[in-house]
């Protein structure tokens, strides 16, 4: 293997290859730090041709590779393989083309999500997908995991905004999919690739749709005495026929974390807040605002705070989007779970999570995209204490299983990755999973592109940072 790596090193400029212990340690985990493994080497390509050379070499030697952006995956989706290499795409960060007239941008995978919006703001445009990590996450990673964000209720996921791709398949072949001018004829290969978690290759150029910035915004923060009341309010708002741009819920712990981290302020004596944002032309927003005011009154909101200007609105969203990192102020370790339940089951799901939390003796902070039932419970633990990770994972497993039982999904936007592979059979029958695998192998016969992710696999045990048992022995198998 060492000689092979030397061969790979010779294919690239010296600054594009690193196998030093410090570099390997820096890439051993992503946002899910419970898993860790050091790869054989790190490659940092500067051009698409570099990527093609590396992937062809990997295919020739059947060496696994994982493409990585900012490493913000919360499902272990960009975790390295012990026998493979990491292809770090951060230096491929050019905005290749801006077609403002047709509202289209072509970007490399390393472009930061929020930087694209900043680049087109002068033209009154923006890029709609806005995950909480948008200040650091890359569009390539968003494509791999079909990221959403707070405004996905109205504007959809990444897949709704990607028009075409230039991709390097696992054998080094370069293909293009989609059409910038509209829907292409034939199979939707772009749609197949978006959300495939890196199992089919690497996106090198991404053509995305830009949207005009809404003329008017109306953003409110409503306080509720209980988390269940806030959840019920979401169901009422949706049932009314109103389609807000965003519907988000934060509980007490989430509010405490945001207040400590960014100075966000919230109503007193409430267990939850609901953030609702309307947007569009001024006349439509004014009309919808009247209906929303009525809904909030009928839902029993104890206090309603209306954003008075753009700065106030930005502060409300700053508090919401800070929560994932801010919880680190309350706990040395935490698992960010990601599951979906039907909206009419939100109240029950939240009650069950609260009960699970009490039974496990582990605190859970709830913050989520309430509009589409996408839960993000943050399970807090101290990995330095024996058994804490196992208990936290058992709690996470119960929440995922709950989502399945309620007719939801094991993931809304974070992906399956390493974390939830063992749950896939709970969502899909064996023929369906076999079909997925056959599609994957059609693009990657050796399964070298992000090997070990998404599908059930017994390798997880050796990749853990803490603990010593695979996920299925944490109480998952008995409940499936």
Folded structure, characterized:
The chain is of the alpha+beta class and 480 residues long. Residues 461-480 have low confidence and may be disordered. It contains 16 helices and 20 strands. The strands form five sheets. It has a seven-stranded antiparallel β-sheet with strand order 15-12-14-13-18-20-16, sandwiched between helices. A five-stranded antiparallel β-sheet has the order 5-6-10-8-9. Helix content is 34%, strand content 19%.
CATH architecture annotation of the domain at 216-326? 2-Layer Sandwich
Number of helices: 16
**Number of strand segments:** 20
Proportion in β-strands: 15-25%
The quaternary state of the protein chains shown equals single chain
- CATH top level of the domain at 216-326 is Alpha Beta
CATH topology of the domain at 216-326: the name is Alpha-Beta Plaits
Spatial extent as radius of gyration: 22 Å
Helix content: 25-40%
Strand order of the largest sheet: 15-12-14-13-18-20-16
Low-confidence stretches: 461-480
Shape field = globular
Q: Gap between N and C termini, in Å?
A: 40 Å
Question: Which structural category fits the helices and strands?
Answer: alpha+beta
The biggest beta sheet reads: 7 strands, antiparallel
* Mean pLDDT over the full residue set: 91
């Amino acid at each position: 293997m060492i000689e092979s790596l030397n061969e790979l090193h010779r294919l690239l400029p010296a600054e594009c290859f690193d196998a030093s212990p410090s570099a390997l340690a820096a890439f051993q985990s992503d946002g899910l730090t419970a898993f860790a493994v050091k790869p054989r080497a790190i490659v940092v390509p500067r051009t698409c041709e570099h990527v093609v050379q590396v992937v062809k070499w990997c295919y020739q030697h059947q060496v696994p590779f994982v493409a990585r952006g900012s490493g913000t995956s919360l499902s272990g989706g960009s975790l390295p393989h012990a026998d493979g290499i990491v292809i770090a795409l951060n230096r491929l960060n050019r905005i290749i083309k801006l077609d403002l007239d047709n509202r289209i941008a072509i970007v490399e995978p390393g472009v930061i999500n929020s930087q694209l919006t900043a680049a087109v703001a002068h033209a009154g445009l923006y890029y709609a997908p806005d995950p909480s990590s948008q200040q650091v996450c890359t569009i390539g990673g968003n494509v791999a995991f079909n990221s959403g964000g707070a405004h996905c209720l109205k504007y959809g996921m990444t897949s709704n905004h990607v028009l075409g791709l230039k991709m390097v398949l696992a054998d080094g072949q370069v293909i293009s999919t989609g059409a910038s001018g509209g829907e292409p004829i034939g199979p939707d290969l772009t749609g197949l690739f978006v959300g495939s978690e890196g199992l089919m290759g690497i996106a090198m150029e991404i053509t995305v749709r830009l949207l005009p910035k809404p003329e008017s915004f109306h953003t409110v923060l409503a306080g509720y005495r209980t988390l269940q009341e806030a959840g019920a309010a979401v169901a009422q708002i949706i049932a009314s026929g109103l389609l807000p741009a965003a519907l988000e819920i934060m509980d007490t712990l989430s509010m405490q974390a945001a207040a400590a981290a960014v100075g966000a302020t919230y109503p007193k004596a409430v267990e939850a807040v609901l953030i609702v944002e309307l947007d569009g032309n001024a006349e439509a927003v004014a009309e919808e605002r009247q209906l929303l005011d009525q809904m909030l009154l009928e839902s029993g909101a104890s206090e309603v705070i209306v954003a008075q200007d753009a700065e106030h609105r930005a502060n409300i969203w700053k508090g919401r989007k800070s929560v994932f990192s801010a919880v680190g102020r309350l706990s040395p370790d935490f698992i960010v779970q990601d599951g979906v339940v039907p909206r009419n089951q939100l109240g029950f799901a939240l009650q069950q999570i609260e009960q699970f939390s009490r039974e496990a003796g582990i605190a859970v902070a709830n913050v989520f995209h309430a509009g589409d039932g996408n839960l993000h419970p943050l399970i807090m633990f101290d990995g330095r204490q024996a058994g804490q990770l196992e208990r936290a994972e058992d709690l996470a497993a119960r929440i995922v299983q709950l989502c399945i039982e309620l007719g939801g999904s094991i993931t809304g936007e974070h992906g399956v990755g390493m974390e939830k592979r063992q749950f896939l059979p709970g969502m899909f029958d064996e023929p369906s999973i076999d079909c997925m695998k056959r599609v994957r192998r059609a693009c990657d016969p050796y399964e070298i592109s992000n090997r070990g992710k998404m599908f059930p696999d017994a390798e997880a045990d050796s990749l853990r940072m803490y603990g010593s048992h695979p996920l299925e022995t944490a109480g998952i198998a008995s409940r499936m």
